[in-house]
């Protein structure tokens, strides 16, 4: 049989499957084709809103070439500003009679006291007022399990999309019709309709397909128990299959809304054919050049990448995180459905009040405010815009949630004061996800101090090292040491902190228990203590550093440390690998003198880490392997949590074994510890957050400041 005939029969079989007996698609001999004429689509997008209803602290310079380079402080984003910008963009599209599409690339959940206090219901109730047409399924949509995802999907008024997700065996999700692979939209001018089938399109309407893509390795980010019965397949294969089916039906305009990260989006674009635009999320990448306002150039917005066959290109966009910005991209198609141009930008949404101090206590003068407003309005890149909050959504947030006693109780009591904002950044050298802080290049590092050196040396997060030190202080306190080993204690040498587990800055001024327990360290991880060799420690660090050297990679796995220090130098010949030029353990003598000793491969070191990473999640499999010692039966691990009182009722049970299970399809190994605590009732498992609360309280009236020790150094080769 000829290849041509095989292809013809295959196509016929696909069409029969779609329109034949038992199909949910309506029978229609000739599905209404797209008119053969040019088409323009304005896509308005957001991603990783993470429950930041009120916006986040922002800062900027009034021009990179400003003589004085004075820094100003304000609030960026928040749901009411995002909605107002969306409304403005829709109005502009309507005025020009241009089609518009509003997409959310996933993870609206987690990240604030609002989410933790109202268990996602506040998110759902606000999202349904945000004018969203479709949303990708993100990993944090599973944080409260599938019952909460069902609540979200059945509350909002838009579909949640993931073509590579099968929920047919999950009792909560199997009958939720709003969770699907794709959504079709029919356009005529600026008029837009959701349609169920291509055959529902009317004469003269243009059909656009929006396909969703979720993480194929969801188990690396979410506990298996939180999505039991839900499976995820290949991002590339599932999407190509969906595109091929739609192409047979005459759909020639395909938009993907994904939650897989920028690096994976690029692989998806280059590994498939037929995707015109990818609207992404997960890596929190605020694409675009923001140097006009003293921030950074984060990579090309609306980059065009060649598809698998090389005869077409896919446009890629992403809009940062934490409801700071809205992306606006215009895609122009020719009469045959090919992308001619793809252009746009991300816009940071600013409040109309500006301050000269980061604690936002001193407003600028009216004259300075006028200068700022004039500068912002004249920005050609439109990278910053003053946006008034949508009053209706602002009122809903305040009335239903912010002013409630439940929310006020969740904030709790004051536990400390910060002298200045202490910044969290995932990967050293990156723009901060909240607050837009970027540390300066450090030329005191040996590799970067040589005359003429073009290497770039960064230390990254200011928060994560403090979190690590809090782990060490609590675990090495008498109360916990007695519980770990009543006779000899078990001194902890090193703390490891994954960047993705630390979610916020510490703002200048007073901070409260809820800021730490529900926002900064919200995942309720209990601490784990284990002893590993220096070689194993080096392997853990290497395996979590190298994968994030690419600026487009998801950087949540990046390791920060306390009790030790390291310098990792990126290879000049291969920017995805590197070597350690320094790997040392901190030694403190009885008189307080600090010295540093090289970490030796054969020596043993006791480390502390959150149980999420100890279980091998988010790329920390080398740590789980070290814990299991290869046979899955022996471990020296102890989990540390408490009942009611973190001082008098510390619990430190031994994890006797770790079961390693390889999945049948992709060979991925999961690590299941035997004996982890049940976190309910009087058993409190957020010992990571509790340790930092204790750390802050111990300072008394002393202000919290970043550590002066540069524990983590990443050395990049010049671009």
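Sequence proposed for the structure above (719 residues):
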């Amino acid at each position: 049989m000829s290849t041509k005939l095989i292809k013809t029969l295959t196509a016929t079989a696909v069409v029969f499957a779609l329109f034949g007996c038992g199909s949910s698609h309506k029978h229609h001999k000739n599905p209404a084709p797209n008119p053969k004429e040019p088409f323009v689509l304005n896509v308005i997008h957001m991603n990783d809103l993470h429950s930041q209803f009120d916006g986040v602290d922002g800062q900027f310079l009034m021009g990179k070439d400003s003589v004085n380079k004075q820094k100003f402080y304000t609030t960026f984003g928040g749901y009411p500003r995002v909605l107002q910008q969306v409304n403005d963009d829709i109005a502009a599209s309507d005025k020009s009679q241009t089609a518009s599409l509003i997409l959310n690339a996933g993870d609206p959940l987690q990240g604030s006291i609002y989410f933790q206090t109202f268990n996602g219901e506040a998110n759902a109730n606000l999202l349904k007022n945000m004018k969203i047409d479709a949303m990708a399924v993100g990993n944090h949509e599973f944080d409260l399990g599938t019952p909460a995802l069902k609540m979200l999907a059945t509350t909002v008024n838009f579909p949640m999309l993931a073509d590579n997700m099968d929920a047919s065996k999950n009792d909560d999700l199997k009958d939720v019709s709003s969770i699907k692979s794709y959504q079709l939209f029919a356009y005529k001018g600026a008029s837009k309709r959701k349609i169920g089938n291509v055959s529902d399109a009317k004469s003269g309407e243009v059909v656009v397909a929006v396909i969703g893509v979720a993480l194929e390795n969801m188990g690396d980010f979410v506990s298996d128990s939180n999505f039991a019965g839900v499976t995820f397949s290949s991002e590339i294969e599932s999407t190509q299959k969906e595109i091929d089916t739609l192409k047979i039906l005459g759909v020639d305009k395909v938009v993907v809304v994904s939650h897989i990260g920028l690096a994976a989006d690029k692989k998806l674009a280059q590994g498939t054919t037929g995707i015109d635009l990818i609207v992404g999320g997960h890596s929190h990448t605020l694409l675009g050049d923001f140097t006009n306002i003293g921030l950074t150039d984060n990579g090309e917005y609306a980059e065009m990448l060649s598809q698998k066959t090389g005869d077409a290109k896919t446009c890629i966009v992403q809009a940062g995180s934490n409801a700071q910005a809205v992306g606006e991209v215009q895609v122009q198609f020719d009469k045959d459905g090919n992308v001619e141009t793809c252009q746009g930008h991300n816009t940071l949404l600013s409040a109309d009040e500006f301050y000269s101090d980061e604690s936002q206590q001193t407003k600028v003068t009216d004259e300075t405010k006028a200068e700022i407003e004039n500068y912002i309005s004249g920005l050609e890149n439109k990278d910053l815009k003053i946006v008034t909050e949508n009053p209706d959504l602002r009122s809903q947030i305040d009335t239903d949630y912010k002013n409630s006693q439940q929310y006020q109780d969740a904030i709790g009591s004051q536990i400390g004061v910060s002298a200045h904002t202490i910044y969290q950044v995932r990967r050293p050298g990156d723009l901060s996800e909240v607050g837009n802080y970027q540390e300066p290049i450090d030329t005191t590092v040996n590799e970067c101090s040589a005359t003429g050196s073009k290497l770039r040396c960064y230390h990254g997060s200011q928060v994560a090292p403090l979190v690590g030190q809090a782990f060490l202080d609590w675990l090495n306190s008498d109360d916990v040491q007695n519980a770990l080993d009543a006779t000899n204690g078990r001194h902890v040498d090193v703390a490891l902190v994954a960047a993705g587990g630390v979610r916020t800055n510490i703002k200048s001024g007073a901070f409260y228990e809820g800021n730490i327990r529900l926002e900064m360290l919200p995942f309720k991880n209990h601490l784990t203590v284990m002893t590993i060799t220096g070689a194993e420690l080096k392997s853990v660090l290497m395996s979590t550093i190298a994968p994030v050297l690419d600026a487009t990679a998801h950087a949540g796995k990046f390791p920060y440390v306390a009790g030790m220090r390291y310098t990792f130098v990126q290879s000049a010949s291969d920017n995805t690998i590197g070597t350690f030029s320094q790997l040392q353990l901190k030694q403190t003598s009885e008189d307080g003198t600090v010295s540093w000793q090289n970490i030796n491969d054969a020596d043993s070191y006791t480390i502390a880490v959150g149980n999420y990473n100890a279980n091998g999640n988010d790329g920390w499999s080398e740590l789980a392997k070290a814990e299991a010692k290869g046979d899955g039966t022996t471990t020296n691990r102890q989990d540390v949590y408490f009942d009611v009182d973190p001082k008098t009722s510390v619990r430190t049970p031994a994890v006797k074994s770790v079961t390693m299970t390889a999945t049948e399809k992709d060979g991925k190994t999961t690590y299941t510890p035997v004996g982890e605590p049940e976190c309910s009732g009087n058993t409190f498992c957020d010992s990571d957050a509790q340790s930092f609360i204790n750390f802050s309280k111990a300072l008394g009236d002393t202000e919290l400041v970043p550590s002066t020790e540069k524990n983590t150094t990443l050395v990049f080769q010049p671009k």
